[in-house]
Amino acid sequence: MAIIVGVLALQGGFAEHVSMLEKTAAQLVETGVTTTVVSIMAIRTPKELARCNALVIPGGESTTMALIASRSGLLEPLRNFVRCVQAFLFGKKPNGFDRL
């Protein structure tokens, strides 16, 4: 079984996230922690998102990311991904906000 981990690639430093996740996935196999193939892909479209088992959303300017996601047709699919897949969300609270 293969696992696809997507990295939301709408703006900012997503390439660094992709690179680090690829290295980590390779190390997990090399060290025998897992035999599961983990593929990392940059996510820019709803079609790409639909292939994911997990999603990393890099930090950035949330207003800009929401605008880009909306314009690219990704906003509702992202919301559905979290609801339907029952995904876990981890993050750091932005300054001035009590909730994610």
UniProtKB/TrEMBL annotation:
The protein, known as: glutaminase
Keywords assigned: Glutamine amidotransferase, Hydrolase, Lyase
Any one of the GO BP annotations: pyridoxine metabolic process
Enzyme class (EC, first level): hydrolase
GO cellular component: cytosol; glutaminase complex
Catalytic activity annotation: L-glutamine + H2O = L-glutamate + NH4(+)
GO molecular function: glutaminase activity; lyase activity
The family this protein is said to belong to: Belongs to the glutaminase PdxT/SNO family.
Enzyme Commission number, as recorded: 3.5.1.2
Signal peptide: none
SUPFAM superfamilies hit by this protein: Class I glutamine amidotransferase-like
Keyword Electron transport: no
Organism: Sporothrix brasiliensis 5110
